[in-house]
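Each record in this resource describes a single protein on a pair of labelled lines. An example record follows, reproduced without changes.
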Amino acid sequence: MMLDVLLEIKNKHDSGLTFRRSCREGVCGSCAMNINGKNCLACLTKVGRDEGGIASTVVLPLPHMFVIKDLVVDMTHFYQQYKSIEPWLKTKHQKEDGQREFLQSKEERAKLDGMWECILCACCNTSCPSYWWNTPTFPGPAILLQAYKMIADSRDDFAKERMEALRGEMKIGRCHTIRNCSNACPKGLNPAEKILQIKGMLG
């Protein structure tokens, strides 16, 4: 995998090469970068080969992000946008006596499939032209996907308030559904489809 190539370079050729990595299994999202023009995870991206062996490969940091060093980009604003949607369960009712958890049926839990798998790697956000041009205000597909996950969760009582918080030309309205996000997602998720569902709910 390309992460192994980068580690080989760092360990044997250039110890100053800087990049993020952690799980090596496509779970943490740390090694997100742009490889041969496509946003992806280095740990899941195979080394390109041609008739002569290993093919020439271009590795760049995620596009349209401030670069700290080499392949490490500043994720501060991305995480601030994530925090802005309050990605935690909020309820209007206290637990009943003896109740320890807020339970879900299997059907309610299934509604979260295609969203809980998001690892916040920012591959989709940084492939989105609307995010490039409106980063300070447009949350981008990853954050909108996470917002819809909270809206769809049966244990949360603030779905209406969460939806209203997404309304606006510089929020949900800034998505033009070109689906770069869905094409870029290394987990095979479809943020564009979830954004369309939010738009449909808002009317």
